[in-house]
Amino acid sequence: MEIYRKVWHVMRFADWSTRVASIGLVLGLGAFPLLAQQGPSAVPPPDQVAKVPQLKLSPEKQLQNFEPPADEEYQLGAGDEISLDFPGRPELSRKYTIGPDGRITLPIAGPLLVANLTRPAAAKAIIDALSADYTNLTVTVNIEKYGSNRVTVLGNVQHPGVLYFDTAPTLLDAVSRGGLQATPSNKDGLPDRCMIYRGNDQVLEVDLRALLRSGSATADIRLRRNDIIFIPSQADLFVTVLGEVKSPGAIPLTPESTLPSVLAQAGGLAEGAGTSPNVTIIEKSSNTSRVIRWKQLMTPGGISEVSLKPGDVIIIPQSGFYKVTYFLRQISPMTSLLSLGLAGGAF
Q1: 176 closest CA partner among 192, 157, 195, 200
Q2: How far apart are CA 289 and CA 317, in angstroms?
Q3: What single DSSP character describes residue 241?
Q4: Do 160 and 182 contact (CB within 8 A), yes or no?
Q5: How far apart, in Å, are the Cα atoms of 210 and each of 91, 232, 310, 339?
Q6: Common-topology check for domains 2-57+237-323 and 81-145
Q7: Closest alpha carbon to 172 in 63, 22, 41, 28
Q8: Is 210 helix (H, G, I), strand (E, B) or coil?
Q9: Could you please report the per-residue DSSP string of 244-310?
Q10: Which of 12, 118, 179, 245 has its CA 20 to 30 Å from the CA of residue 158?
Q11: Rounded to an integer, what distance in angstroms lies between the CA atom of residue 266 and that of residue 247?
């Protein structure tokens, strides 16, 4: 408890970059959410490049935090083939394939969104949709084929690409089905490490060989749908770019790599980053983080060249302004209709 009191004390009175590092004290560098929800007062001074020591969770604890619960109920997704069984209503019972938009089309009721629903929740949504035309209905939702339960394996494997699973996918399942690449120095082809990417804001490095040698069951952690597993070769050096970039993920690191060139390889800034985001770099090798202002980075001579190290994680946060403009874009059609209505009333 003492460490949490100290972290809270630091966060109350520290500047923005120190707060980010303090959060890292609690979360570690394993599976972490996007570290940046900044306001105008959160901008550090122009010459500030902070480095703050961080504590690190044990690898097994990181894996446990990243792994979904063993009893987590399956959620339907696009590509799943399901069958609906209506006792006493055989004319309604049939098979469906959930479309790319996550919907099925029911007789009379029409399209219905069922993606990301569990089977009981989907059954309730179906009964509700048909309740205007049918009474006392019950339905059982069965999964005939798992078409959305997939992960992607990339990197140093024989068969990179998308893999489909009938059960909850695990890391060793994905690695073995991707095809291990044996080399003279690595005869079994088992990678020393791999990276698991989840969405555009989470990444976990797994020391796979060390875990297997220790007999740890956490080496075969459960994955989530749409996880991406990247397996580097022994000689690969790379950094990870997350957040508001067009192509988040692993970027090869060469002697010529710079922070701007790495961000360019990640596709550049996405719309949600705004025009001048702060850039957070987490150095896994030294357990430190630093925050760099975009304008300082882009101004010649504004800041000394930023050195990158293998394993670094670079985070581009979403801007507060983007959130406001996104909201305005959502309500603008309603505003236009209201304006037209007022104009019509004037004639």
Answers
A1: 157
A2: 14
A3: E
A4: no
A5: 57, 16, 19, 65
A6: no
A7: 63
A8: helix
A9: SBSS-EEEE--TT--HHHHHHHTTSB-GGG-SS-EEEEEETTTTEEEEEEHHHHHSTTTSPPPP--T
A10: 245
A11: 5
Residues 6 or more apart whose Cβ sits within 8 Å of residue 83: 93, 94, 95, 96, 141, 142, 144
Round to whole Å and give the CA distance between 311 and 308. Answer: 9
Contact 315, 242 (CB under 8 A): yes
Of all helices (H) and strands (E), which one includes residue 120? helix 119-130
Closest CA to 179 of 151, 203, 154: 154
Indicate the domain borders of the chain: 2-57+237-323, 81-145, 150-231
Cα-based torsion angle of the residue sequence 323, 325, 331, 336 in order, rounded to the nearest 10 degrees: 180
> 218-248, pLDDT tens digit by residue?
888 999 999 999 998 766 788 999 999 999 9
Which helix or strand (DSSP H or E) is residue 52 part of?
strand 52-53
Structure tokens at 134: 């049918």
Closest residue by Cα to residue 283 from 317, 258, 315, 318: 315
Q: What is the CATH number of domain 81-145?
A: 3.30.1950.10
pLDDT tens digit sequence for 284-302: 777 788 888 887 777 766 6
Predicted TM-score (pTM) of the model is 0.60
Confidence of residue 98 (pLDDT cuts 50, 70, 90): very high
Q: How far apart are CA 264 and CA 273, in angstroms?
A: 14
DSSP notation for 81-94: EEEEE-TT-TTT-E
Q: Which structure tokens are listed for 187?
A: 């005869």
Query: CATH second-level architecture of 150-231?
Result: Roll (3.10)
Percent of the chain as helix, strand, coil, to the nearest 5 = 30, 25, 45
Tell me if 78 sits within 8 A of 98, measured CB to CB: yes
249 contacts 316 by C-beta, under 8 angstroms: no
Amino acid residing at 72: E
CATH of region 2-57+237-323: 3.10.560.10
